[in-house]
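User: Here's a protein and a ligand (adenosine monophosphate). What would the complex look like?
Assistant: Let me lay out the input and then the predicted complex.
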Amino acid sequence: MRICRRAEELTPFFGGEFVPTMGALHEGHLALVRRAKRERGITVVSIFVNPTQFGPGEDFEDYPRREEQDLRLLEKEEVDAVFLPRKEEVYPEDFATTVRVDRRLTGVLCGKYRPGHFDGVTTVVARLFGLVKPKRAYFGWKDAQQLIVVKKMVEDLALGIEIVPVETVREADGLALSSRNAYLDAEQRRRAAGIFRALSAGRGLAERGSCRAGDLLRRVREFLERDDLSPQYLELRTVKNLEEIRSDSVLEAAPDGEELLLATAVPLGKARLIDNLRFRAKIIRRTPAFEGERK
Ligand code: AMP
């Protein structure tokens, strides 16, 4: 396994499989690596805690950094190269570009509460794509909005990189693995499992037949309250373009329906935990005409 700290050392690894990360690796990251390895190409993993995606007062300084342990884990996975750049390698002094995807995708959900966050993400991902020149790149559904935004960027800029989504890896009690789970104490860790229970209850309601979006969201909130969790946001949107599903829309379970994203962010102690579930439903939007038909 080659450890590259300089961009020019990446040349022999162009055209391969790429897994960008911020390190403090766990089984979620390793699922991406294993999925990448299945393609049998050269696999490159980057570890870079990107300062531009953290807002003022966020956890950039405290973000867990475990370089030695990460390298041991990646060695075991037989990764070909790890890119571990210093900040100046990613952002040279005269760096002058920001890549921004439309606010309809980046100003909602997490973007509403973390202004500039996704500009930091798309800019660093575009820069890393340019340095690593991969054929395919792997992203987790855990960060669904990030995946959707990066896909849009690649499509709009015709970067010619295939974005491969990977399912969220969870603990036995349902909590999505995250480097930030390390911030939780034992009591918070126990309550954190309530997020998955709540989202599952919501999805369960939709999958059982027909329900109103507003009732589904109410049910999820009730579940969150049981664990004394209060979400920063809890929303139902389309996966395709993150369009919000109005609460008076009726959802009908349908395997060929629209793919929906039930997403939440829950502040818990020092952590801010995000999670989401996807399911398919036919959306019957209430329109004035529809109202008229019912009379
Ligand atoms: P991060 O190091 O948090 O920037 O994450 C790097 C990549 O790993 C992103 O594409 C994440 O979506 C993905 N990832 C993080 N946690 C999980 C998880 N629990 N399951 C699947 N993918 C994950």
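Summary: Residues 179-294 form a domain with the Pantoate--beta-alanine Ligase; Chain: A,domain 2 fold (CATH 3.30.1300.10).
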